[in-house]
Automatic annotation (TrEMBL):
Residues 1-36 are annotated as: Disordered. GO terms for cellular component: nucleus. It comes from the Eukaryota. Residues 1-19 have a biased composition (Basic and acidic residues). Residues 393-449 form the Iron hydrogenase small subunit domain. Keywords: Nucleus, Phosphoprotein. The gene is Narf. This is Nuclear prelamin A recognition factor. It comes from Irena cyanogastra.
Length: 459
């Protein structure tokens, strides 16, 4: 069969085994061949396996497929090359945002501390011509805080609204795409409306930062370095686009592996790069040491929401969370008991086999959970298919184990303690309950009209 997004290439449909390989597809070049030669013409096109894109088959239109495959190294270097030319009217401010789950990959791969990895990655990107390098942890702060508040509100009105609970996390674009394109509104109505960290980072860079720098959003080219290919699809969402300025909030997503590929093509070793402090969104400040959120291999939505809900709804101060593995290590639950009754029941469901089982139980009315942290990749975000893969597309388990060790050692910072976030709620977002908070930090998810043939996709 043929996918809509690669009409000239045969591809095999995603099978139930999450490690199944598919045919590779050359990323489309953003050049029409008429551009003059430049120093970056020798760069290879990015290779993307259809198994890496969790939203294949009928989930992508022809136009979306073309736009996804244009998010590659050549597009990144096209903008860098424009900035070297004399026509300043075409110059862009180039900003790169780093996902926290990408940094352990660079640290483990090059035998560096996570702080060294962040600074050397920043130094490498700036040596190419990037102007600003940001850490997306602040965007995750906003996303978690808004998710916490929404869960408490949904829990309080659970008896009045049919679809208030359970609430599903909204940070994983592979899960979101699957839910919107394959599942029904019965499922999408349960998805948290808080935007993902990538989407919020787009608003911060093209909204808050652009205003601080007195720049029009379309004058900024915003690149996100992420652990998975589905982030490329997420950048194409219509609600991630500012029509007034004809500007996407994220212009290009490069995976961690694609950044390493650039280093190899430029014959640069991470250990030879000068360390440069990561930039802050605020004035001329620089970021300090890398911090993360609770959670073993992700942004920790389950842990933060669970602790917040326990305190807000039941006055219980939870210090440590105990996970109970159920059918497999990628489906675990966490419960809170009070006066002999289970008052909160959360789950983490990673990988599409667990997601399908979860959805089946929801449709049968046998769902016991109040909140589920849903991630498309088995093992979570650190195991994103844009990093820690061997040459034949299999997970590099030894490297992944090192990454998990590196990630676990990063200090945890509660989103509530970030003073910059608190100030931005007041100064930029006009208060925590404002319309601007809803417009900037939230979105809506709904099932697309699907033909019956698309509903039997087996992952």
């Amino acid at each position: 069969m043929k996918c809509e997004n690669c009409s000239k290439k045969e591809c095999s449909k995603k099978q139930k085994n999450d490690d199944t390989q598919s045919t590779s597809v050359d990323a489309l070049s953003s050049s029409d061949g008429s551009e003059e030669k430049n120093e970056f013409d020798t760069l290879a096109n990015a290779k993307i396996l259809l198994s890496d894109c969790l939203a294949c088959d009928s989930c992508m239109t022809l136009e979306e497929g073309a736009r996804v495959f244009q998010q590659n190294q050549k597009e990144f270097f096209r903008v860098l090359n424009l900035n070297k030319k004399c026509d300043t009217s075409k110059h862009k401010v180039l900003a790169v945002s780093l996902c926290p789950q990408s940094l352990p990959y660079f640290a483990a791969k090059f035998n560096l501390s996570v702080n060294e990895a962040a600074k050397r990655l920043c130094g490498f990107l700036k040596s190419l011509g990037v102007h600003y390098v940001f850490d997306t942890t602040i965007a995750a702060d906003f996303s978690i805080l808004e998710s916490q508040r929404e869960f408490v509100q949904r829990y309080q009105r659970r008896n009045q609204e049919e679809h208030a609970l359970p609430m599903f996390a909204s940070a994983c674009p592979g899960w979101i795409r699957y839910a919107e394109r394959v599942l029904t509104n019965l499922v999408t109505s349960h998805i948290c409306t808080a935007k993902s960290p990538q989407q919020i980072m787009g608003s911060l860079v093209k909204g808050y930062f652009a205003r601080q720098q007195n720049l029009s959003p379309d004058k900024i080219f915003h690149v996100v370095v992420a652990p998975c290919y589905d982030k490329k699809l997420e950048a194409l969402r219509e609600d991630f686009y500012t029509a007034l300025y004809n500007s996407a909030e994220v212009d290009c997503v490069l995976t961690s592996g694609e950044i390493v590929q650039i280093m190899e093509q430029k014959n640069v070793s991470m250990k030879d790069v000068t360390e440069v402090a990561v930039d802050s969104l605020f004035d001329d400040l620089k970021e300090g040491d890398v911090v993360r959120h609770d959670g073993k291999r992700s942004d920790g939505y389950l842990e933060h929401i669970f602790k917040h809900a326990a305190k807000e709804l039941f006055g219980v101060d939870v210090k440590e969370i105990t996970y109970k593995a159920l059918k497999n290590k990628d489906f675990q639950e966490v419960t809170l008991e009070k006066d002999g009754e289970t008052v909160l029941r959360f789950a983490a469901a990673y990988g599409f086999r667990n997601i399908q089982n979860m959805v089946l139980k929801l449709k049968k009315g046998k769902f016991l959970y109040h909140f589920v942290e849903v991630l498309a990749c088995p093992g979570g975000c650190l195991n994103g298919k844009g990093q820690a893969q061997t040459e034949d597309g299999k997970p590099d388990r030894a490297l992944l184990a090192q990454m998990e060790e590196v990630y676990a050692a990063i200090p945890v910072r509660l989103p509530e303690t970030n003073l910059h976030v608190q100030r931005m709620y007041q100064d930029w977002l006009e208060g925590m309950d404002s319309k601007k908070v809803q417009d900037t930090l939230h979105t809506t998810y709904s099932a697309a009209n699907q033909s019956t043939s698309s509903l039997d996709i087996k992952w």
